Amino acid sequence: MLKTTGEGTSSMEKPPLQFLYLILDDWALGYNIRKVDVSCNDHDLLDDCAFGYSIRKVNVSSDDPDLLLLNGMARESAVCLPSPIFRLKARRFLNFIPRHMDRFRPIYFSIGSRLFVLGSSSFEVIDLQPIDNPSSQLDSLSWCKLQDAPFHSAEVVSYAILPDKQTIFASVGLITNNATYSFQMADDIEGGSPTWKRIGEWVLPFYGSGYFDSALNAWVGLSMYSLETGRICACNLVPANSNSVDCPTWKFSKENLFSNDPTETHVGATLVYMGHDSRFCLLECVIVYYKYRVRSYNFKEKDVYPQAFRYMYRVTTFSLKYDNNGDLTTGDSRRVRYYKAPKKEVTRYLCESPVVFWM
């Protein structure tokens, strides 16, 4: 089994180990948070915590990434509850905040101590700076309504934040005309309150979130284009303070990071940034059929059951760089490990869109 690290490191010791955390719907009353040590070759997942709440987006504060926000609605209930804030590594609840009411496909942006949520018909922000203070009352924390976005959150295909932490970009497409919008939060915006601006008839080239990497000076994400499936994309930054911007340039990695094993069937994948040195982790969910598998996956005879397949998590850690020809590459940095998903309980829904984060 995977082991947690001890507490109380001194300033002379190495920083605490970080882990990959995965949200699974393998609990009848809610969701489990499971921890994966990507430096370990153990093929099991550690069942670290369990909560009776549905979890949408977990990162609350980019200044304090150990905080999690759990949506305050019981899995089998339509009752709207306050959203608990949880400090993961200390395994304790800190406080509750009012739950935003726009619950259909929300997208969260964590900027400093502020948490922004883009809903189907609203755009709101809450400042969580005092959340670690147990004396803070629920009514002292409230969502502040911002200008509504000129699009539906379900239309968003990709999004990113500039490193100045003042500008959000969101691209819409697939079910609507391609377009990218910006929302600038700087206090000195000419004309007063911040507003959404349509800046181009193009979309950012990655699927979901793009992560800023300072070494590459680019947003990095998983390619959204079918011809580049499984490749990593590094996209040049879009300048702020522009009313109209040409489509940025980008490069795809030379390597395809998805499994090329014909006995593994791709289900879904999520890319996460490991925080520094252009290090990333790609979690891909695959179906492995017992009858046709080539490798053992450390299966035991008792694992073979009538359904004849098992969900596996294929976890690839890697670094990105530009080679001498200017091509984006992982070089020889890739390391691949496999972890078993809990047998029978995990649904295909969360396998198609894995919810995973690094801290």
What's this model, at a glance?
This protein is mostly beta strands and 359 residues long.
Folded structure, characterized:
The chain is mostly beta strands. It has one helix at residues 348-352; strands at residues 20-27, 30-36, 46-51, 67-69, 83-87, 92-97, 107-111, 114-118, 123-127, 144-145, 156-161, 167-172, 179-184, 196-200, 208-209, 211-213, 218-222, 232-236, 250-252, 264-273, 279-289, 309-319, 321-322, 328-329, 335-340, 355-358. The strands form seven sheets. Strands 14-13-12-11-15 form a five-stranded mixed beta sheet, with no helix packed on it. Strands 3-2-1-26 form a four-stranded antiparallel beta sheet, with no helix packed on it. A hairpin with a 5-residue loop joins strand 23 and strand 24. The protein is globular, with a radius of gyration of 21 Å. The two termini are 19 Å apart. 30% of the residues are buried. Mean pLDDT is 76; it is low at 1-11, 45-64, 72-82 and 90-95.
- In the sheet with the most strands, the strands line up as 14-13-12-11-15
- Tell me about the biggest sheet? 5 strands, mixed
The pLDDT mean sits at: 76
- The amount of helix comes to under 10%
Count of individual beta strands: 26
Count of DSSP H/I helices = 1
Order of helices and strands: EEEEEEEEEEEEEEEEEEEEEEEEEHE
Q: Which parts are unreliable, with pLDDT below 50 for 5 consecutive residues or more? A: 1-11, 45-64, 72-82, 90-95
Protein name: F-box protein
Pfam families: DUF1668
Organism: Urochloa decumbens
